[in-house]
Structure formats: structure tokens, C-alpha cells
Amino acid sequence: MKKAFKVSDKTIGIPRAMSFYHDYPFYHGFFAALGIKVVLSDSTTKQTLNEGSKLVVSETCLPVKIYIGHVLNLLDKGVDKILVPSMQSVAHKVYNCSKIRGLPDLVRNVIKKDFTIVEAVLDKSEKNNGFYEFLSEVARYYGIRDKAKIKKASKAGWRVYNNFKMMMKSGMHYEKAMNYALSGKVFIEERTKEHPISIAIVSHGYNIYDERASMKVFDKLEGMDVRVFSALQLSDEQMNDGLRMLSQGLYWANECEMSGAAGFYLKDTRVDGLVTISAFGCGPDSLMIERITRKAKQFSKPVLNLTIDEHTGEAGFITRIEAFVDMLYRQKRARLVDIDLRANEISGLGVGTENFIEARGDDWREGAQNSFSDGVDIA
After folding, report:
1. Given a cut of 50, is residue 1 above it in pLDDT?
2. Is residue 360 part of a domain?
3. If you ran DSSP here, which 8-state letter would residue 143 be given?
């Protein structure tokens, strides 16, 4: 049964999709300071995806299908003003993909219902279309034109967002950091547990923090005793450093969280391997992942490339991740055996390789024989 919401002129709906997973802490603080109530769509379900898929052509990428489903969910709740921003350019000559840039037009043309699209434009490649103008345009939908009030609200938004990022950088889980930030609390989590394997997931927030799209990949990996890193744990400076490491300029708006994060984690000695997750048919991602995969071979760091769409089965998805993690375990065991052997040879003990592995049992023998000594790409 749908929850009933009292809709007023001071209500705005925000789809729990696309930029939500990165930007919502800011919007929460901003709209609260303006006295505007935020109504979120429900978490993604099979029905959300099915309803969105019915209205767009089959070639449309998974994140957009999910987004359309979330707009429909908000309309079912009775929300009549929905934020669908037109995010053209996030920096000078740095653009979003065509689907994100045309999202308001897409929503307007496929959803034939009477509601207001709060369609503010952010285009930093053009004059007078910056972030403050974007926020002012949103506020005008609610009759708010007081510049001082809007500026104060933006500061409240940044305060919530910065707190969220600070907690994410400390290694806190996404949901936990989000809940603390929205409630105005800040906790810095110190990670004391040691994990035998560490993996960096390289993807967009909407592909990995939407539990339906990602099939709870974080929970699955942590259940295998793997420490997981992501782009939200990095600063802008670290991601820009990663871009430079890949010898790549910034053209796509989402390039930092893909190529920038990958470049940083490729040279991070804490990380044993990378997992990239991209939506089927995403052109910008396919170009970035190709470059990431080639660069990974120079660092002898394994990469698992996964593609998701509405037909992706959880069993096959998880099986590939389990095989990748098992390979990393074998590789690390073999590396430790090699280090110990070298240490024994240097110390003059004269312990042969076969005897050394024999003394450690079958698990060590199997790991040494079947591990990979070079970086691999499992497409």
C-alpha cells in the first residue's frame, strides 16, 4: 500500500536515482533551510525498473530506466513538483552524457501526467549558468527570490554534504554516513579490523549504491572478508591525481569518479584489485574502462569488468565476483610464499621451494601453483 503524503506548495519530490546518491545530502540541507519538504521515492524494486522500462526504448541505459520508474513512484505518492535538473556542464568544457543532459525533456515526453518538472539548468561552460544561478532557479519555483536566503540555504546544504563526505572518507558505510549526515551528526570511524584482501569498486554512485542495480555488491564482498574502497572515499585532489596518472584530461563530468578513482587506486598499494561496474550501452564508461584496463596491466593489478542491465542475474554476477576474489587470495598467498622463500635463501637456510610449500600444507601448494603473477583482465 502506498504511503499517503500531504502535498503542499512547499513540497518537492526527489527521485532516488542518478545524482541522488552523490548530491542528496546537499539537497537535504538546502531545501530544509528554505522550508521546503522533501519527499523521496521508495527504494528501487523490480516494479520500479519494470514500470520505467515500459516507457522508454529498450536501448536506454539501466540508470535512466530506473530514474523514470522513480518519477512514476513519486507521482503515485501525489507529489506534483519533482526535481529533474538539467545538468549540462559541471565545469568549463566538462560535460555530462547526452541522457543526463536531456533528462528533463525525456521525462516530459515519456510521462504523460500533469505535474511540474523543477527544471533548473547547470551549465558552467556558459556565462551566468553556474551553481548559484542553478539554486536560484530552483527556489523561484517556490516564489523564493531573496538572494541572502538562498545563499544561506546553500551553506546549510554544503554543511550537510561536507559532513557526509568526511564520514565516507573515514571508511564509514554509505547508508550509515548518509543517515548520520541527514540527522546533523558527525562521527569519524576508525577501522581497526584487518582484511586479507582489498578491492576498489570503480563505478558511478547510482550503479553501486542502488542495491537493486548492484545486487548489494558491498555486502557480498564484505561477507567474503574483503575491504572495499570507492570514489566517495577520495578527495577531488586524489581523483585529479588519478586522472593525471592515466594521462587523461577531463571531458566527461563523471570521469573523476571513474577514471580518477581508478587511477588513484591502481597505484594504491593497499588495493589488490579493481572491479568496474558499468551499465550496458554506456558509451563514456566503455571508453574509460578500456583505458583503465590497459593501464592496470602496467601495474600488474587485476581488473574485473562487470556490465549490468535489467536482465543481469544475481547468481552469475556474484559467481564472477567470487571467482575474482578467490584469484586474488591465491595471488596474495603465492606472493607471500615467494617473499618467505627469498628470505630463507638470503638467510642461508637452504630451504627449497618444494619443501617450503610442503611444510605449509595443500592450501599453500594450490595457491602457489594456481595464482597469477601478472595483472589480468577478466572481461
Report:
1. no
2. yes
3. T
**Assigned domain for 1 exists:** no
pLDDT tens column, 280-291: 888 888 888 998
Residue 135, domain member (yes or no): yes
Do 158 and 236 sit in the same domain of this protein? Answer: no
Average pLDDT over residues 6-34: 90
Claim to verify: residue 144 and residue 258 sit in the same structural domain: no
Of 185, 173, 134, nearest to 30 by C-alpha is 134
Cα–Cα distance measured from residue 286 to residue 40, given in angstroms and rounded to the nearest whole number = 31
Query: Which residue intervals of 224-313 are DSSP H helices?
Result: 236-245, 255, 261-266, 283-298
113: domain range? 11-169
Strand blocks (E) in the chain: 11-14, 37-40, 81-83, 86-91, 94-95, 116-118, 121-123, 197-202, 226-229, 273-279, 303-308, 377-378
d(CA 200, CA 305): 12
The pTM of this model reads 0.84
* Claim to verify: residue 83 and residue 129 sit in the same structural domain: yes
In a domain, 52, yes or no: yes
Q: How many Cβ atoms sit within 10 Å of the Cβ of residue 244?
A: 13
| First CA to last CA distance, the chain | 42
